[in-house]
Please model this.
Amino acid sequence: MLRSELIDKLHDENPHLTRNDMERVVAVVLESITQTLERGARVELRGFGAFSVRHRKARAGRNPRTGEDVFVPEKHVPFFRTGKDLRENIDASKDK
Model:
């Protein structure tokens, strides 16, 4: 699903609000999640999942095209762990 598709779906379910209102709602939610992760905190959406930041140490890597050794610096990366309800819903939908 694209961001625009999410906005359209929210607008369809809430016709009393304008599409611009829905765009703002989505922007605020995503920006809040981003800012929280930037601070290093965790974002948990019960039944859906949790976003967190993981630290990856510096390491030696390999350029797959040339085979040359390269240095990969340490970094912090976003991580998403699905919630139990989401996993169960996906598993149930695959059984049909």
